[in-house]
């Protein structure tokens, strides 16, 4: 088993402890040993090993399984909504894809925001704007924001380096010919991409995923989530080098393509999971959404205030902002506008790329030739 393959097995006990389950280090070792002995042929074998080792009580078995699905399947944290019991979101199970409606039954317009959850499969066409995406990816390293690290580097800088000075003194009988200096390293800020995949954003979902794929592949640290009636982490899928393969994999992970809109509730779920919320701390947060929200704006405003307190900068890309005369009209967008650092157009791939890195950087990287 490679170290990377061990990550979910080590993250799972931490997530259990965070939710109040007992998960001692010895149980973690037993869990790894049990999985090794079983030689699991499916994820259900791993789940049975987890049940046997950690022994969740029947009253918390569902919570335990939800944490397991979140860690090992990489998603399925449901956003609470105000729907009736018949409309309440169903727990997603990758083995029950029969819940998805066939494509011919999809809502052809998707222009209206709705709170009701509808589950669809989604197939993405091969990219016809690969050149622009490649230029965007090349421009990213020089345009993404950086911050000072706590670590130092020995080359240049105006700070004296006492450790190297003492080493030089020890080698030269106490003499220093040149005072060694150092400076703080810099590293890219974390990037968090939040994509609204509700029906009203249907026309721009593929382009937004292309932007997210370039971010995840190029940035030093980037995370991507989809927001609809559910919250789904798609970072792992978007790490695939091939864009078409990455989108196809993400398509299989997300169950609420072109469904209803519970933006505020989905953001609240994101902030309620400590591991997810840590992705926003000091990060450049990019939200691709039209901000259309059914119901009152209270949940969205509260979530955005908490997100604003964590993030370094929030950039909101909206397809509605392509019009120069655009002014937020919905109550939700008017309420959260003071919490957004930059609102720009996001109606297509070119607009989103230009908003994030600028036209000049795109031209230098080879776009628009």
Automatic annotation (TrEMBL):
Signal peptide: none
InterPro entries xrefs: UCP010256, Uncharacterised_CoxE, vWFA_dom_sf
Descriptive protein name: VWA domain-containing protein
UniProt lineage: Bacteria, Pseudomonadati, Pseudomonadota, Alphaproteobacteria, Acetobacterales
């Amino acid at each position: 088993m490679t170290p990377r393959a061990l990550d979910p097995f080590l993250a799972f006990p931490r997530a259990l402890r965070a939710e109040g389950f007992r998960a001692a280090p010895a149980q973690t070792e037993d869990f790894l040993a049990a999985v090794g002995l079983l030689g699991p042929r499916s994820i259900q074998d791993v789940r049975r090993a987890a049940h046997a080792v950690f022994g969740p009580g029947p009253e918390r078995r569902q919570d335990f399984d939800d944490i397991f699905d979140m860690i090992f399947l990489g998603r399925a944290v449901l956003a609470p909504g105000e729907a009736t019991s018949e409309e309440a979101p169903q727990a997603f199970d990758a083995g029950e894809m029969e819940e998805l409606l066939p494509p011919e039954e999809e809502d052809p317009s998707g222009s209206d925001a709705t709170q009701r959850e509808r589950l669809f499969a989604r197939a993405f066409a091969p990219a016809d704007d690969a050149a622009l995406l490649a230029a965007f990816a090349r421009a990213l390293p020089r345009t993404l924001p950086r911050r000072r690290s706590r670590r130092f580097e020995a080359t240049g800088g105006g700070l004296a380096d006492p450790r190297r000075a003492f080493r030089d003194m020890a080698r030269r009988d106490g003499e220093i010919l040149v005072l060694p200096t150092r400076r703080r390293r810099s590293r890219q800020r974390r990037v968090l991409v939040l994509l609204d995949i509700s029906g009203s954003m249907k026309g721009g979902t593929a382009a937004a995923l292309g932007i997210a794929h370039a971010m995840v592949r190029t940035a030093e640290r980037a995370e991507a989530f989809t927001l609809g009636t559910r919250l789904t982490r798609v970072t792992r899928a978007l790490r695939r080098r091939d864009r078409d393969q990455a989108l196809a994999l993400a398509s299989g992970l997300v169950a609420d393509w072109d469904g209803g809109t519970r933006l505020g509730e989905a953001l609240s779920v994101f902030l309620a999971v400590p591991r997810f919320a840590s992705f926003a701390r000091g990060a450049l947060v990019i939200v691709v959404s039209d901000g259309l929200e059914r119901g009152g704006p209270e949940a969205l405003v509260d979530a955005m205030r908490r997100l604003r307190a964590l993030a370094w900068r929030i950039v909101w890309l909206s397809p509605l902002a392509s019009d120069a005369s655009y002014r937020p009209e919905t109550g939700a967008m008017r309420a959260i506008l003071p919490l957004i650092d930059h609102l720009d157009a996001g109606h297509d791939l070119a607009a989103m790329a230009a908003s994030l890195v600028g036209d000049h950087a795109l031209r230098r990287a080879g776009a628009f030739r």
